[in-house]
Amino acid sequence: MFQSVWVSSAGSCASGEPDGHRDGKQTSWKCGFVRTIIQHPCPRHDSKGPGKARMLKKIQICLCFFFVSGILYEISLLSGCFFSCMPMAKHFLTPEQVLNLGKSIIFLETTERLEPTPLVSCSVESAARIYQDRPIILFMKGLTNDTALDLNSSYAAFSLLSSMKNVFIFPLQMETVFQETPLLQWYNEVVPEQEKNWVHVSSDASRLALIWKYGGIYMDTDVISIRPIPEESFLAAQKSRFSSNGIFGFPAHHKFIWDCMENFVLKYNGNIWGNQGPFLMTRMLKTLCNLTDFKGTEDHSCQNISFLNPQRFYPIPYPAWGRYYEVWDKSLHFNHSYALHLWNFMNHNRKTVVAGSNTLAEKLYKAYCPTTYEDLIQNAELRDFTRTEDVV
Length: 392
Prior knowledge:
- Helix content is 36%, strand content 17%.
- By secondary structure, it is an alpha/beta fold.
- The chain is globular, with a radius of gyration of 25 Å.
């Protein structure tokens, strides 16, 4: 699916075909590790003397070592030890290999922006801290396989996120993502330059395809995680009888997501904001469930899909989004929330977190993305102050 980089059990990296024969052994490449199956595990008797037999024995021991190493590598992937035991190995993995680990947390950047904003960085960092045993993946449309961005990048947020052991940043290749889904034909026919809401529409489509193929949780890049979501198949209610698509989770190949993709194409209208997003999720949920109003903080459930209470992600509704950037007289704990959506789409005046402002947003940054707060808020303001003093 994606461009492949194959990683051997010894930690080396080589490009290759999935299966092949070489030097009398069969090699099978899978998910970043190599299994070597010895066709002749025992050296045959050789009349030329014991010297050659000893050499063959050493070769056999070496091959067995690599075989065992491959098994241990696979176990580390499956056990979650991968992130803590082999932090450098992640730089050799492809998007598909990481997604196949399962239960990924997926973020999307469908603009050409290469420098993540502090809010994007906070969203990704907070997820990485809350879900330490799960891959956190940021797909960026502006990033290509030829873009040289790494730990030494001049983009501070990119370097910050890349250094986190379970965070992966990959190019977003939409044509590849839409393969084998109902969205491919739509993507091949649509003209992005003529689309009024292309950034949002392409994001709506990409999140559906990725979750359908690989499963996991999708989150908008203005969602700050504060505790783990205990549900596997869920939609987030923005208000009673209305679903958001800013955060949702399903196992791979779930029928509801497939039906959403088909309806995306059937009812496509790119001129109506949200028609392929929250309105899509809401109309598809209504075909399955008789939606009722929420009372208190209970969740609803229908056909094994949890419809989570607005308090879980939207305790501050979008008309009041500015309260995140205000100083609160009393402390808020959001005890009924799993994450908080900061409604960045509504933030037309581009309000930001300012060090020392004591706003709710600043408190959230300090608590759930402290590295972002220190590097991109405090240190950035210090650097700006130093430059100003130098000019004066």
